[in-house]
Amino acid sequence: MDNTAVVTSAESSETSRRPAGRRAILVGLVIGLIGMVLLAAISGAISISLFELWRDTDQGALQRTVLADIRAPRIMLAAFVGAALGLAGAALQGLFRNPLADPGLIGVSGGAAIGAITFIVLGEQLSPPAWLSPYLMPLAAISGATAATMFLYLFSKRYGHFSVVTMLLVGIVINALSTVGIGAFQYISDERQLRALVFWTLGSFGRATWATVIPALVPLAVALVVLLRQHRRLDQYQLGEAEARFVGVDVDRLKRVIIIASATAVGAGVALAGIISFVGLIVPHLLRLMGGAAHQYVLPGSALLGALLTVLADTVSRTIAIPAEVPVGLVTSAIGAPFVLWLITRVRAR
Amino acid sequence: MSLAARSVSVRLGGRLILDDVSLICDSQQTTALIGPNGAGKSTLLRTLAGEIGASDGEVLVDRLPITQLSAVALAGRRAVMTQSSEIVFDFTVEEVLSLGMISDRLRPAERQAAIERVARDSDIRHLQSRSYNTLSGGEKQRVQFARALLQIRPAAGDDTDQAPYLLLDEPTSSLDLSHELMLLEAVTREASRGVGVLIVIHDLNLAARFADQIALMQDGRIMAVGAPQEVLDNQRLSDVYRTPVRVEHHQDLDRLVVYT
């Protein structure tokens, strides 16, 4: 806890942050997100021109199909998964009272991957009806993510505080387990499955179709709404666990709600897009730097900025090496890893 | 109206921390809890606050068992200031104050006025727009005190059959002389408008000067309880603190003075 206190006092400023400034940031993020979505929609292997799109030509028809069937579900998935990662990151950081909590780093995403892989392996034996499987996959991932978060929470609680070290070490354990799961699955899978598996470890929105996206977006969207409503209680929770109870917060309920909703949001995303690291870490941190720590601002801001950055990362991943595609997790990790290093130097600098 | 412990025992990790403790904190009164380290003062305060459950006996809030009140209902009845004042993330002082604002019946203007008032009482008006984490330990303590005041502020005078209670665990431990007095004078004002105050404090001179009732604790038991001049006795204090203590009535100041 000592270390984290240093981070925040380093980033503290003397000036007050007026609600107007925060509102301006949120409005800016909404506009930025809309702009980014439009940009993402027209760029890609087949660039879409707004003039051509409405023409009754072969080219126009092709562009309409690409936009409606390939690009739209993909952008929608990227935006929602990004919002989920950003918001879950902010909520978990609030719950653990620790700015280094990230769904990827602390193993929530890894837990979701374990759940999903278990389903893939066992699912073939169970052979559920075809209409049910798009729902079962996210459900399995959500269960895995919830189990991982609970484990993390109970484990760190047992040893007193949520120290950065304990949390990251437990995260390493969960991530190692998920690597074992993925590795074992790789070992028994054939060439074609192997290629698809890369997606678990590096993340990709390339498999998004309306049929797979919709079932995962429903629980994800519900979880986002639930998380956004906890802002006041999360603020009060920052006073301390006992102190939050003293001002009337049902702390046990708050913990349950945040753990399950975060795991649902992240798990549903992992089921479709694999593990995407660092978004949940970077995004809330940037928002606190810009406008302070009040969750009424940080939570919606993290959802918006998470969506914006993830759509951006996905657009980069599919346009940087046309016609090939770089896994989106590579892009976020390439940006995120140096960011974490920078964060650590801030923690160490007194 | 009172906040009362009735034959309360608390066992934590197999150890008996409180042993058959009874104490009544009347509304309109300031009760000081004194005693050496490890006597159980903080545990008694946290038990009366409802954080720690009694292993035996019960805590009564205006004759109602505290276990029958929900967290929200209890928050409207009593505010607690603990010794922890660290906040990891970067909130402004004004935001920290508003966390104690639990009544949602107030209009924005009334909220602002209530915040202004407690900020003046704790001398933190000039700090309101500062970042909480840049404050000194004493300043943080004053902010936490103001937050606790704010929590019970709207309740006073609303209901005549329900008194608000203010529980303070060493609220002056980091304060300088003048702010120490300022805080205790604010506490006295709260008591005079109907609040029942329980305060854990180490400074026996301050306890003697500001408390209506003093409870002296040792090894999880209350050794003496009553008015300051009854409890603060040379022999008794010397025994409990295991060091020679002298209590005298100071003619010029017209109050008890404790020497070690």
Taken as a percent bin, the fraction of beta residues of chain A is under 5%
From the alpha carbons, calculate the radius of gyration of chain B and give it in angstroms. 18 Å
Largest sheet of chain B: 6 strands, mixed
The level of helicity of chain B is 25-40%
Distance between the termini of chain B: 37 Å
Structural class of chain A: mainly alpha
Backbone shape of chain A? globular
**Shape call of chain B:** globular
- Beta-strand percentage of chain B? 25-35%
Going by helix content, strand content and strand pairing, the class of chain B is alpha/beta
Number of helices of chain A: 14
Q: What is the number of beta strands of chain B?
A: 12
Descriptive overview:
The complex is a heterodimer of chains A (350) and B (260). With 350 residues, chain A is mostly helical. Chain A is built from 14 helices and no strands. Chain A has helices at 2-11, 19-42, 58-96, 108-126, 133-158, 164-188, 191-202, 210-228, 231-237, 241-246, 251-273, 279-291, 295-319, 328-348. In chain A, helix 4 (108-126) packs across helix 5 and helix 13 packs across helix 14 (328-348). The radius of gyration of chain A is 20 Å and the shape is globular. Residues 1-16 of chain A have low confidence and may be disordered. In chain B, the strands form three sheets. A six-stranded mixed β-sheet of chain B has the order 6-7-8-3-9-10, sandwiched between helices. In chain B, strands 2-1-4-5 form a four-stranded antiparallel β-sheet, covered by helices on one side. In chain B, strand 4 and strand 5 (64-65) form a beta hairpin. The chains are: A mainly alpha (350), B alpha/beta (260). Chain A binds chain B through residues 1, 4-5, 8-9, 11-17, 94, 97-99, 235-236, 238-240, 242-243, 245-251, 288, 292-294, and chain B through 46, 49-51, 71-72, 74-76, 78-80, 82, 84, 86-92, 94-96, 99-100, 102, 128-131, 133-134, 151.
